[in-house]
Amino acid sequence: MALRSGGAGLNPVLNYIDGQFVESHSGKTLLTVNPATGEPLAEVARSNGEDVEAATQAALTASASWSATTLEQRVKWLHTIADALEAKSETIARLESLDTGKPISLARRVDASRSVSNFRFFASMGEDDTSPTFSDHGAINYVHRTPVGCVGLITPWNLPLYLLTWKVAPALLMGNTIVAKPSELTPLTAHLLAETLHELEFPKGVFNLVNGYGPEVGQAIVEHPSIGGISFTGGTSTGRIVAATAAPMFKKLSLELGGKNATILLDDAPLDSIMDEIVRASFTNSGQVCLCGSRILVHESIYEAFIDAFTAKVSALKVGDPMNEATQMGSVISMDHRDKVEAYITLGLEEGGNILTGGTSTQAPLADMPEQGAFLRPTVFANLPISSRTATEEIFGPVVTVHTFASDEEAITMANATDYGLAGSVWTADIQRGHTFARNVESGIVWVNTWLNRDLRTPFGGVKQSGVGREGGRWSMDFFSELTNICIRQP
Ligand code: TXE
Known about the structure:
Layout: E1 15-17, E2 20-22, E3 29-33, E4 40-45, H1 49-67, H2 71-86, H3 89-100, H4 104-127, E5 133-136, E6 139-147, E7 150-154, H5 160-173, E8 177-181, H6 188-199, E9 207-209, H7 214-223, E10 229-233, H8 236-246, E11 252-256, E12 261-265, H9 271-283, E13 293-299, H10 303-315, H11 335-350, E14 354-359, E15 377-382, H12 389-392, E16 399-405, H13 408-415, E17 420-421, E18 423-427, H14 431-440, E19 445-448, E20 463-464, E21 467-468, H15 473-479, E22 481-489
Parallel strand pairs: 7-8, 7-10, 8-9, 10-11, 12-13, 12-18, 13-16, 15-16, 18-19
Antiparallel strand pairs: 1-2, 3-4, 5-6, 6-22, 11-21, 14-15, 17-20
The protein binds ligand TXE.
């Protein structure tokens, strides 16, 4: 059945297998919807194991020639892809905003630009790559990298192209071929990446894209015996399923999962100069960034001052049409997700919390937004116990809970009082205290007096239920390659 284009005049989203755009074997389709209006955007190939098999065979066929290219040739390809994506930045921003409901200004500033810089960054890593050597006992050792082979890349809906390219760039650099699966909620920019590679006449079969639902396509990728490594970004519950499937197969596995991050304001935090950053850390992308600070811990001596200033700024955030340049917060990803977030707002009230601003779409409606738009106002809870479900479970929406503490020790205990451990931020005038905090917060990333300050050379990932492994810089290169130590005895 020919795929119809959706209301936004977008072409159907097909699979990209062995250098060809194809429908799913079954001919089945699903719809991707604009969450800000409820309008269909495009029909999408709904694939299953048959399509994954075809994609994997294409990747295996292409593997020998691609892995035989030189590092220099692959670096050149990454630059070429970056240039081509950069020329499409505005289109990427528009598609990402349509698919996710995020403000076009955010999609431009974060999603489009970082998708380009992911390729440029890993090209530079390739140019500067040095393999370590070790000599002792009359021998010299060097570390030889070989590709994993065919890798599976599975990505979520919150930063679609940003997170896909974060995996594609190092996977290609290390000589792997790819079977990629974007979220069924946000397939548009992954399709644009395939179109871009096609236009560049990128070697066929090296990058393959299979669209569809997680249990039907993602599961088939994780299960496929010829896919040697899985890089997964998504929810903790799904990560658990992926791990249970991949572990007995001894596949390389990288899991970037959920978070319930703490923003910690010590008694000497310079409130006036950091308030905009704290709002940004709380509500960027409607709180749908795993690095957002969803629990704000404030020293009791500055609590009143903080609450007044924070609530005023949050209430003033411009929530509305994502295509309006002045919008600061768009819709959440879907009506289903809005229902989930609203259930947590209701739970927060049941657990004794007070809403200082925001609330459900009924309690705090946005009058001039489409009825079918998945809009929510940013919501701030006070007076919830740190052990409440609202303050310990991941909501992944525009909801934060604010808590007080009396001592640094109490703040560290509160920060760690969750099953997650992805990121955190500490705000203080005393850098020494910041260092102490950073070492005691159980997470993969701690920012001191900043947030989402990203140096791509650093290790990225979480502990506890926020994931397994690290990506970023050489950690990505190590994940996407197998290392052989070769030891040569000198005569
Ligand atoms: O995740 P899902 P979503 C987390 C964030 C939030 C979630 C939102 O905490 O909870 O991701 O993204 C596919 N086998 N992070 O809802 O449902 C699915 O189709 C294989 C943290 O998309 O886990 C999609 O492509 N794959 C992160 C992908 O998995 C399966 C940053 C993720 O879907 C599958 C972003 C299965 N059985 C979001 N079921 C971070 N830590 O950086 C589903 N999928």
